[in-house]
Amino acid sequence: MKPLIVYYSHSENNQKLAIELQSRIGCELREIKEKKKRKDISILMDFLIQRDSRLAPLDFDLKEYSTVILLAPIWAGKIAAPMRTFIKKSKDELTDYSFITICSGGPGQREKIGAELLALTSREPSALAEL
To answer: Is the separation of the CB atoms in 73 and 113 below 8 Å?
Structure first.
């Protein structure tokens, strides 16, 4: 079984990284999409009231992949709401996963991301990288 890259990208930075990573390791790539196009103000609202995103239906089954590489931005020190929602819904299938983000994190942010992932999945990621 091959690995799978699952990404969410609001500004296309994480999308570019996902495509580059896919070309280097030769695996499948899937995008997390929302039912409605996100506006910048909704990022703030998601953070303030901690609401889940309304995701478009997924066209893949995580059980078909050996490992999952998640890519998403960090918003106000938290994993972007659409990816967080995906992780919550898929936590039972995320038995072997890694997380990568392009962000301008401050001191201790990597540890906070790791703690958030552990809280969402009850498992630590195999790898965690901030670029």
So the answer is: no
**CA distances (Å), origin 40, targets 8, 44, 87, 124:** 15, 7, 22, 30
Q: Give the number of C-alpha atoms closer than 13 A to the C-alpha of residue 67, restricted to the C-beta side.
A: 11
- Collapse the DSSP code of 80 into the 3-class scheme (helix H, G, I; strand E, B; otherwise coil) and give the result: coil
pLDDT digits (tens, 9 = 90+) for 25-48: 999 999 999 887 766 666 666 666
Contact 8, 31 (CB under 8 A): yes
Q: Are 120 and 87 in contact (CB under 8 A)?
A: yes
- pTM higher than 0.70: yes
The Cα 69–Cα 46 span in angstroms is 24
